[in-house]
Amino acid sequence: MYILPILSLLNLATALPQRNQGSSNRNGGNRNGATQRATAQQQAAQIPQGVSTAVDGSTILDDTVTVNGLPLRFRISAPSSQFLSDSGVPGASADSSNGTFGINILLHGDGGQSFFDFPNQAVSSNLLGIALLAPDPNLFWGGGSGLQRTDGVAHSQAVADFINDALPKLVSFDRRKVFFTGVSGGSLMLSGFFIPSQMSQFENAGVMLNCGGLVPQVDFVDEETVLRGTRIHWQSTQSELVSLQRSIPQAVAAYEKSAAQVGLGLDEINGLQTVDNSPAGGHCEFDGQGFSSGIQVMADAFADVMLGGGSGEVVGIGNVLNGVVGNERLRFEG
Which intervals of the chain are annotated as region Disordered (predicted)? Predict the structure, then answer.
């Protein structure tokens, strides 16, 4: 298996409100101050791209495409037979972009750690794992910082265009089975921008929003279609970041209200929108131990939480499928 030299190359931020390390103007030790600290994006570029092997033996393609003028680095985990010849993957033999596998696309947290960890790699429950790296100097999805995602519109459009235009040239998949995983800043962009503006293009989609949430920052496109056809789960912890202790419940309530306004009944809303913040850990520490290991717990439980007929059980947490109606006001510690 290809082991990524993350720690030796990157000093990536994973918590939402951490200062923008990539824009530091402090010099790198040069006496004349000529050498400046590299941005997170520049540091990430030092990690090689190419073909490697996933934990299940499937193939990982790590490459970059330009979408709407933005460099979008991606990782796709799939059987080699599902890649198209244009991908350059050895053993690629798919002759059509239309396949039977669905996809689960992960948008990482601020700094990009989850892109390099790639917790959703491998083929799971007939879903191919995909991760995208934010086209931002600081590797923030939506740009900006904190709860202010100034490039959310552009980044959301780039993600949608990647799925619709670039991905079909690389791997065979079923466009009716498109799912998303957000982590921290990635969840902010998905809930604040992508779901309202782009989700109407993906029928019967699902979004797992881990440790982050924003009230929609843009108008909905075909609001009723989106809210009737999109499965949303919000997952947080008891000791979440203070800023997110406010924004996540606000986002949960906003999506519930929008669903009611388009005519969904209480049972329908609870069937589509669920929320949980029972784990005792800190930001994204769903296992009570660490950021990366916590995210992996939710990635491993994706099918049970997000797919129809799933048990809702998450190892170390229990059942997380609590309907949002009546559970909007999450209680946190501290």
Answer: 18-49
Integer Cα distance of 109 and 211 in angstroms? 9
Q: Give yes or no for residue 139 having a pLDDT over 60.
A: yes
The answer for residues whose C-beta is within 8 angstroms of residue 166's C-beta and 6 or more apart is 65, 67, 72
> How many structural domains does the chain have?
1
Mean of per-residue pLDDT scores for the chain: 91
Cα→Cα distances 128→38, 177, 226, Å = 33, 10, 23
Q: Is the pLDDT reported for residue 18 higher than 50?
A: no
Domain presence at residue 30: no
More confident position, 182 or 203:
182
Contact indicator for 128, 102 with CB cutoff of 8 Å: yes
Range of the domain at 217: 50-323
Nearest residue to 135 via CA among 103, 166, 104: 166
Check whether 12 has a pLDDT greater than 60.
Answer: no
User: How much is the pLDDT for 34?
Assistant: 38
Residue 2 lies in a domain: no
Q: How confident is the model at residue 232 (pLDDT cuts 50, 70, 90)?
A: very high
Q: Which residues contact 98 (CB under 8 A, 6 or more apart)?
A: 172, 173, 174, 175
Q: In whole angstroms, how large is the CA radius of gyration of the chain?
A: 19
Residue 236 located in a structural domain: yes
Q: Tell me the backbone φ, ψ of residue 301, rounded to 5 degrees.
A: -100, 10
Write out the two tokens for 280.
Answer: 């005792």
Q: What does the buried/exposed string (b/e) look like for 137-174 if buried means 16 or more CB atoms within 10 Å of the residue's CB?
A: ebbbbbbbbbbebebbbbbbbbbbbbbeebbbebbbbe
Strand order in the sheet with 102-107: 50-53, 59-67, 70-78, 127-133, 102-107, 178-183, 206-210, 231-235, 273-276, 322-323
Residue closest to 72 by CA, chosen among 115, 43, 122: 115
In a domain, 20, yes or no: no
pTM for the predicted model, two decimal places? 0.90
CATH code at position 153: 3.40.50.1820
